[in-house]
Amino acid sequence: MTQTPPFDAPTFRRQLHQHPELSGQEQHTSRAICEQLQGFGLEPITDIGGHGIICIIEGEHAGDTTLLRADFDALPITEVASHGHISQKPGIMHACGHDGHTTSLLKVAEQLSLTPPPCGKVILLFQPAEEIGTGAAAMLSDSKLSGMTIDHAFAYHNLPGHPLHQVIVKPSTFACASVGAKIELQGKTSHAAWPEHGINPTSVMLEIIEFLQALPDQYRDVFSLVTVAHVKLGDAVFGVAPGSATILATMRSECNQTFAAMQQALSDKLAHLKLHSELDVHLSWDEPFQAAVNDEAHYQMVKQQAQALGLNVTELAEPMRWSEDFAEFLAQTKGALFCIGSGEHHPELHNPDYDFPDPLLETAAALFLALINDLHQIESLERANS
Ligand SMILES: [Zn+2]
Ligand SMILES: [Zn+2]
């Protein structure tokens, strides 16, 4: 009988790191994950909402279903590093640590393949296209997943700026809703000497910028933010009065209802401007994310299991300003998103010199397994039924 070698997680992670793939184009990464799961004797289900994979591990007895999620897409960033596993793909790198998230979930897969949970079902979910905010929703709407009842959902993100292995938790909103708003104003150019012969978008453009910057003031009770990211008016010439303008802004809020109200306010404002100017006004939304809202009991579970493992736990006073499309799972299933510190002086996420810290592979897997252990023992089934 041939002995399968134990899973070498850091080596696997570094291989993923060397071969990063952009959101929506992760076919090779997906295949590598799938082959590794098969190597553990598991039966992955592939091509879910694109290159997504799920792997279901069932216990002997009935019980709850828990979903653990890891993402696996990379970013259009050129890596600057001297280590031996630098990206082999020019202009693409694992700058957010999704190579690590996925590898730690594979460690969980290895362990559960050896010791399945006594009760219920564990769904290990490997998700593509997180960075563009579409992967989670695409997987959830796929018929291979959409019919399943899921009782608990957990995911983590590594987080530079915090001590290595520190578990970062927060009740309620963990990460903000966000969206990119692209506003295009189309008028008509004219000779700069006769601006009155054209339709000049300058004053409307300035009014929109002022409106965007003042918008969060209307929603002071929760954290909300609008950042005007880019503005273009006409072309860089002296002889022409501008005939078009483009504004790009990013909107954020910790509250999904407030966020929807902010989006509606912008739509209404633009509809009003369109009606009262000769300009054609067009609004489009890009990369929408809901706020990731943790369930109280599940946030407590993460905190308790992390403490039981002897990990340092800290609680955020405010939600993360960034967004995470795990929010889509939390909108449907009770669960929690948390972070694990990547080191206080570790390069930031999306920096060109970022690299996932391998010691976290073990920590993340241990915490996931502790959560599974807590939710899928015979006693937890009895507890739920009593
Ligand atoms: Zn990222
Ligand atoms: Zn990320």
Automatic annotation (TrEMBL):
It holds the Pfam family M20_dimer. Keywords: Hydrolase, Manganese, Metal-binding. Its cofactor is Mn(2+). This is Amidohydrolase. Transmembrane segments: none annotated. One of its GO terms (molecular function) is hydrolase activity. Mn(2+) binds at C96, H98, E131, H157, H350. SUPFAM superfamilies: Bacterial exopeptidase dimerisation domain, Zn-dependent exopeptidases. The Mn(2+) ion enhances activity. Residues 178-274 form the Peptidase M20 dimerisation domain. The lineage of its organism: Bacteria, Pseudomonadati, Pseudomonadota, Gammaproteobacteria, Vibrionales.
